[in-house]
Specification:
This protein is an alpha/beta fold and 434 residues long. It contains 13 helices and 14 strands. Helix 5 links the parallel strand 2 and strand 3 (134-138).
Length: 434
């Protein structure tokens, strides 16, 4: 064993040496160096953790994943975290859990309605459609870019079963109003926190206010596994259901490599199968296989150690951009934090005013010419996307702010990849253009 430890130590030293040589920080050159909106931030520790996992030769989910789920649950202060292979899969699993027959009359069924927003990422809303439910679209507010809670009562019908919305760009929707509305009308609340890991509302982490929540670990997000995501909840029934949907729809909850955790493996009669049919091969729902590998989880563990620093840098970059661009507030609407919230910013949203003398598209092109990367607010308006043409939904009002987002809104990065020198350059680029 001591020989193996010595070899591993040598490998770790070589990995650090390789990282320091292969990923040297390059000097920032204005107008030549690309200023990103997002991307992975890592050092030698991530490579060492991944290598440790590979050396274990346990290539599916295992001890690294178990540790990651436990540590992330403690960080968020939630009872259960289940990793999945993407944030989109997390949304699918979380919404699937709300359709389970165990929930009785509270289960979401085809034809039921779910309140959401059209200014969204597709896979926040897609599970609603995939289960035959009807999305009911509300407008968002500017400069918060979160659901307009004033229209919640207008959206309510006898078919309403849930609210499914994201904390857009790391800001936080009005959780006081939304949770009160859900409690008043006995609705499920699913929080998409894929952009918002580390964000809090009245001192509590987002995702702990609703019934079930989701995260993404794609490289654009606050921490990364390359690909990956998570479902989390403090509802033990929903946790068991979500785990089943993630793991083929099986009735068994044994960990990989484990047998007979329930002690009833060969002494149950379920479905129309014969008595004693192996419980490891009993399927209680139409499920998926959306697990991650231990190598992904090992990367997540290394990233989790840096999460607080990442979040703080994002907040600092957001504040620096606000100061740099405040002088252009006659032409630009700058983003603001929702009252009572402490966002974990994903990006810096900007809406170009109609009287700015320049269009959003012109401004974006000029920034890109100066190597300052930009993005639009995801799908803009899902109703206008090609795949939505023949889908069924309801709309509350005319969604004027959503229309504005489609034509006038974009965002720039606050990622830890960006430093103060880059932000100073971004500010000067806006000065020159405007």
């Amino acid at each position: 064993m001591s020989k193996l430890l010595d070899i591993k130590h040598q490998i770790h030293e070589l990995i650090k040496e390789y990282h320091d040589e292969a990923f040297k920080q390059k000097a920032f050159i204005e107008g030549e160096t690309h200023v990103p909106v997002s991307g992975k931030v890592f050092d030698h520790r991530e490579l060492q953790y991944i290598t440790d996992s590979a050396l274990d030769a346990w290539f599916t989910t295992g001890k690294f994943n178990a540790e990651f789920e436990k540590k992330l649950a403690k960080y968020i202060n939630v009872k259960s975290v289940l990793t999945v292979n993407s944030g989109s899969s997390a949304n699918l699993v979380a919404f699937s859990a709300l359709t389970a027959k165990e929930l009785g009359d509270e289960a979401i069924k085809p034809g039921d309605e779910v309140i959401t927003v059209a200014a969204s990422f597709p896979t926040t809303v897609n599970p609603i459609l995939q289960y035959g439910a009807i999305p009911v679209f509300l407008d968002v507010t500017i400069p918060y870019y979160e659901i307009n809670v004033e229209d919640l009562e207008k959206a309510l019908s006898s078919k309403t079963k849930a609210i499914v919305i994201a904390h857009t760009m790391g800001n936080v929707f009005n959780l006081d109003m939304v949770t009160a509305f859900c409690e008043k009308h006995d609705l499920w609340l699913m929080e998409d926190c894929c952009d918002a890991l580390g964000a809090t509302y009245n001192g509590k982490h987002v995702g702990t206010f609703g019934d079930i929540a989701t995260l993404s670990f794609y490289p654009a997000h606050h921490i990364t596994m390359g690909e990956g995501g998570a479902v989390y909840t403090s509802n033990s029934k929903l946790k068991k259901i979500a785990e089943s949907f993630r793991d083929w729809g099986r009735d068994c909850w044994c960990e990989p490599g484990k047998d007979n955790t329930c002690g009833l493996r060969f002494c149950q009669q379920l479905g129309d199968l014969p008595m004693g049919y192996d419980h490891k091969y009993i399927y209680s729902r139409q499920g998926f296989n959306l697990k991650i590998t231990d190598m992904q989880a090992s990367l997540g563990l290394a990233q989790l150690e840096k999460l607080d620093d990442f979040v703080n840098i994002r907040r600092k970059n957001f504040d620096l951009l606000t100061v740099a661009l405040q002088k252009h507030s006659d032409k630009l609407i700058l983003p603001e934090a929702t009252p009572n919230s402490k966002p974990s910013w994903f990006g810096f949203l900007i809406t170009v005013k109609k009287n700015a003398g320049i269009s959003r598209n012109e401004l974006v092109q000029k920034l890109n010419d100066k190597k300052v990367a930009t993005r639009l607010l995801f799908a803009g308006d899902l109703r206008k996307q090609p795949y939505f043409k023949d889908l069924k939904y309801r709309v509350i009002g005319d969604l004027p702010n959503t229309d504005t987002i489609v034509t006038d809104t974009f965002w720039i990065g606050v990622t830890p990849m960006i430093n103060e020198e880059m932000i100073s350059y971004i500010g000067r680029c806006f000065d020159e253009i405007l």
